[in-house]
């Protein structure tokens, strides 16, 4: 059971803010006392029956603090500012009440969710799809730069209730008239401070200025810089502010590692880890009850003493499973979060997060099953590439760095298997009366005129059966690009190692340095520290990037679109051009545009005969 939580509501003091835009802070923090209280469930929050059924199907059992605090406000139609770190369950906090209020019988776009990166946009769209599994007729569309317009246009024409997108691509569709928001009733800004950091804030403000007058806005951000507070003050109507203060820590006796899922599938990777890691007892955490039984059966088929532990298992069976784990008749338990509550078994030396947890608090609870009472323990986290943000959130929340582990190679596994095979022979020679078999085999050797070693080899093969003793291949653990990133430690690449590239998008297309940085960082997965000088000319731009740009990143950036134009990146052949710095220009929006959703009115100045000079900006996220 979770510790009791105290909810404090206090008005925050703000000057120069109208009363209609007053903020209220709901601070939720763990209690220092161990007083027992009934744990809130999703049934208590007022979600629609279809959404509630889907929530239970995906394995959620109790809401996280941000979900418990914000869902009632959003269901009530209130504007909201939610401040909480990544990894606290923010996606479900806005997605579940939003879905509960949608009209699935209408094909018009009713909700727009803005996200800073394409990875987050895809992740949010997938989460919405899973939460809406019981809602026939529901459609969600992720839209982002680098994706072909044709598929997006076709989906928008058919009609979708929810659009999840990055600001630049959403703005493109709005200006084209292909994304119509006349019937929009919900707007969500996810990770608003990240959008500010990536240079998208002007785009976000333009989009918000085009919203219908009657709409609900939920803004989520890990921090509250002045620009984000200004947006909330300007566009939100008397919003509630919910601030989640989390205090999470992990035992220093627990060694924490993660494996970046690539190459091998998760089950094969898990099998290799089980072979190579010396462990006593182990808990493997998964998200759903179904996976507990499926994974237990697959491990049993591979010869491991494993069993499932989930909420559907009768109490008597649960107690038997725990007793077997304690006395050594069972080595591995595959469990969900709730099923493992209160489980304290001294034998547990390892915790493996086969499925990454939904929030950082769940991670702390999971790995707390090992390393207790001063004992040492190991925690291993499986992370898919798109889940790297959650890994970073866990590191921030626990204030500990989690080291990356490499899977055991084929050579490692083969050496261990041979050693174990040899040990079986040694144990049999030491503890078994072999006189009968020795006599029988001596007769066989004499009769068939074969060597003793050939007979031993035949018996060893018979013992091994059809399963090969040796592993034939090893997984590729790290690409060259990732190896370079690890060597550089995320520090800016020296100017001498940068190459200047040309991008076929310029000032006449309405591009900004922030657009270019965002596209390169998101589409080619290049850290902002490795993005150098950006110069924007009338019909093209240049950017300094690492000279040894991976081929995959180069090809990706050829087709990536910014401001409606393919970047079509190439090595810049020309010399340096004269540079004149300009201040970023903000779009001018008329009052009519504010209220009626019309396009902004932009004054056009007469151009002089003097040739245009480029804008330049150091790439920062």
UniProtKB/TrEMBL annotation:
<dbReference type="Pfam" id="PF25399">
    <property type="entry name" value="DeaD_dimer"/>
</dbReference>
<dbReference type="InterPro" id="IPR000629">
    <property type="entry name" value="RNA-helicase_DEAD-box_CS"/>
</dbReference>
<dbReference type="InterPro" id="IPR050547">
    <property type="entry name" value="DEAD_box_RNA_helicases"/>
</dbReference>
<dbReference type="GO" id="GO:0016787">
    <property type="term" value="F:hydrolase activity"/>
</dbReference>
<dbReference type="InterPro" id="IPR027417">
    <property type="entry name" value="P-loop_NTPase"/>
</dbReference>
<dbReference type="InterPro" id="IPR028618">
    <property type="entry name" value="DEAD_helicase_DeaD"/>
</dbReference>
<feature type="domain" description="Helicase C-terminal">
    <location>
        <begin position="266"/>
        <end position="413"/>
    </location>
</feature>
<keyword id="KW-0963">Cytoplasm</keyword>
<dbReference type="GO" id="GO:0003724">
    <property type="term" value="F:RNA helicase activity"/>
</dbReference>
<dbReference type="InterPro" id="IPR057325">
    <property type="entry name" value="DeaD_dimer"/>
</dbReference>
<dbReference type="InterPro" id="IPR034415">
    <property type="entry name" value="CsdA_RRM"/>
</dbReference>
<feature type="domain" description="DEAD-box RNA helicase Q">
    <location>
        <begin position="40"/>
        <end position="68"/>
    </location>
</feature>
<dbReference type="InterPro" id="IPR005580">
    <property type="entry name" value="DbpA/CsdA_RNA-bd_dom"/>
</dbReference>
<feature type="compositionally biased region" description="Basic and acidic residues">
    <location>
        <begin position="573"/>
        <end position="583"/>
    </location>
</feature>
<comment type="similarity">
    <text>Belongs to the DEAD box helicase family. DeaD/CsdA subfamily.</text>
</comment>
<dbReference type="Pfam" id="PF00270">
    <property type="entry name" value="DEAD"/>
</dbReference>
<dbReference type="Pfam" id="PF00271">
    <property type="entry name" value="Helicase_C"/>
</dbReference>
<feature type="region of interest" description="Disordered">
    <location>
        <begin position="573"/>
        <end position="621"/>
    </location>
</feature>
<dbReference type="InterPro" id="IPR001650">
    <property type="entry name" value="Helicase_C-like"/>
</dbReference>
<dbReference type="GO" id="GO:0006401">
    <property type="term" value="P:RNA catabolic process"/>
</dbReference>
<feature type="compositionally biased region" description="Basic residues">
    <location>
        <begin position="598"/>
        <end position="608"/>
    </location>
</feature>
<keyword id="KW-0378">Hydrolase</keyword>
<dbReference type="InterPro" id="IPR014014">
    <property type="entry name" value="RNA_helicase_DEAD_Q_motif"/>
</dbReference>
<dbReference type="InterPro" id="IPR044742">
    <property type="entry name" value="DEAD/DEAH_RhlB"/>
</dbReference>
<dbReference type="InterPro" id="IPR012677">
    <property type="entry name" value="Nucleotide-bd_a/b_plait_sf"/>
</dbReference>
<dbReference type="InterPro" id="IPR011545">
    <property type="entry name" value="DEAD/DEAH_box_helicase_dom"/>
</dbReference>
<keyword id="KW-0067">ATP-binding</keyword>
<keyword id="KW-0346">Stress response</keyword>
<feature type="short sequence motif" description="Q motif">
    <location>
        <begin position="40"/>
        <end position="68"/>
    </location>
</feature>
<dbReference type="GO" id="GO:0005829">
    <property type="term" value="C:cytosol"/>
</dbReference>
<keyword id="KW-0347">Helicase</keyword>
<dbReference type="GO" id="GO:0000027">
    <property type="term" value="P:ribosomal large subunit assembly"/>
</dbReference>
<dbReference type="InterPro" id="IPR014001">
    <property type="entry name" value="Helicase_ATP-bd"/>
</dbReference>
<keyword id="KW-0694">RNA-binding</keyword>
<dbReference type="GO" id="GO:0070417">
    <property type="term" value="P:cellular response to cold"/>
</dbReference>
<dbReference type="GO" id="GO:0033592">
    <property type="term" value="F:RNA strand annealing activity"/>
</dbReference>
<keyword id="KW-0547">Nucleotide-binding</keyword>
<protein>
    <recommendedName>
        <fullName>ATP-dependent RNA helicase DeaD</fullName>
        <ecNumber>3.6.4.13</ecNumber>
    </recommendedName>
</protein>
<dbReference type="GO" id="GO:0005524">
    <property type="term" value="F:ATP binding"/>
</dbReference>
<comment type="function">
    <text>DEAD-box RNA helicase involved in various cellular processes at low temperature, including ribosome biogenesis, mRNA degradation and translation initiation.</text>
</comment>
<feature type="domain" description="Helicase ATP-binding">
    <location>
        <begin position="71"/>
        <end position="242"/>
    </location>
</feature>
<dbReference type="GO" id="GO:0005840">
    <property type="term" value="C:ribosome"/>
</dbReference>
């Amino acid at each position: 059971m979770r510790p009791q939580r105290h909810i404090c509501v206090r008005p925050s003091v703000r000057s120069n803010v109208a009363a209609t835009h007053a903020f209220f802070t709901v601070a939720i923090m763990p209690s220092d006392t161990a007083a027992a209280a009934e744990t809130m469930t999703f049934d208590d929050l007022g979600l629609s029956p279809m959404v509630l059924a889907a929530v239970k199907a995906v394995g959620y059992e109790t809401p996280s603090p941000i979900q418990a605090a914000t869902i009632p406000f959003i269901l009530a139609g209130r504007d909201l500012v939610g401040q909480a770190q990544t990894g606290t369950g923010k996606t479900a906090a806005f997605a579940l009440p939003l879905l509960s209020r949608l009209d699935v019988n209408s094909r018009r776009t009713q909700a727009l969710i803005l996200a800073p990166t394409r990875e987050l946009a895809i992740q949010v769209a997938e989460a919405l799809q899973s939460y809406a599994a019981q809602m026939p007729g529901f459609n969600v569309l992720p839209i982002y730069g680098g994706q072909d317009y044709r598929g997006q246009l076709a989906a928008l024409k058919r009609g979708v209730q929810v659009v999840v997108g990055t600001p630049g691509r959403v703005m493109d569709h709005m200006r084209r008239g292909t994304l119509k928001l006349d019937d929009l009733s919900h707007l969500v800004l996810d990770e608003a401070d990240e959008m500010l950091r990536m240079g998208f804030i002007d785009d976000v403000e333009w989009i918000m200025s085009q919203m219908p007058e009657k709409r609900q806005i939920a803004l989520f951000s890990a921090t509250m810089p002045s620009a984000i507070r200004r947006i909330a003050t300007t566009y939100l109507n008397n919003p509630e502010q919910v601030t989640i203060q989390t205090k999470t820590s992990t035992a220093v006796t627990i060694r924490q590692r993660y494996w970046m899922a690539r190459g091998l599938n998760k089950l094969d990777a898990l099998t290799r880890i089980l072979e190579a890691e010396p462990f006593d007892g182990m808990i493997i955490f998964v998200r759903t009850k179904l996976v507990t039984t499926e994974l237990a059966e697959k491990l049993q088929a591979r010869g491991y003493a494993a069993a499932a532990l989930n909420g559907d298992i009768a109490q008597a069976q649960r107690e038997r499973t725990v007793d077997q784990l304690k006395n050594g008749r069972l080595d591995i338990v595959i469990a969900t979060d709730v099923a493992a509550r209160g489980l304290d078994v001294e034998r547990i030396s390892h915790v493996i997060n086969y499925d990454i947890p939904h929030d950082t608090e769940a991670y702390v609870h999971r790995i707390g099953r090992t390393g207790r009472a001063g004992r040492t323990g190991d925690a291993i986290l499986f992370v898919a590439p798109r889940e790297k943000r959650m890994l970073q959130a866990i590191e921030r929340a626990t204030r500990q760095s989690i080291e990356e582990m490499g899977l055991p190679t084929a050579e490692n596994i083969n050496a261990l298997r041979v050693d174990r095979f040899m040990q079986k022979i040694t144990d049999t020679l030491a503890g078994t009366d072999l006189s009968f078999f020795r006599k029988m085999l001596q007769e066989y050797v004499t009769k068939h005129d074969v060597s003793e070693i050939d007979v031993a080899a035949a018996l060893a093969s018979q013992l091994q059966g059809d399963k090969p003793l040796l592993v034939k291949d090893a997984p590729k653990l790290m690409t060259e690009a990732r190896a370079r990133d690890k060597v550089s430690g995320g520090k800016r690449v020296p100017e001498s190692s940068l190459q200047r590239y040309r991008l076929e998008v310029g000032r006449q297309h309405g591009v900004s340095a922030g657009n270019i940085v965002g596209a390169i960082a998101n589409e080619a997965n290049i850290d902002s520290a490795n993005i150098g000088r950006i110069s924007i000319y009338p019909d093209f731009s240049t950017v300094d990037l690492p000279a040894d740009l991976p081929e995959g990143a180069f090809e990706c950036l050829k087709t990536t679109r910014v401001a409606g134009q393919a970047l079509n990146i190439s090595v810049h052949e020309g010399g340096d051009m004269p540079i004149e710095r300009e201040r970023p220009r903000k779009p001018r929006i008329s009052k009519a545009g504010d209220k009626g959703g019309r396009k902004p009115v932009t004054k056009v100045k007469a151009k002089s005969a003097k040739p245009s000079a480029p804008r330049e900006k150091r790439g920062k996220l």
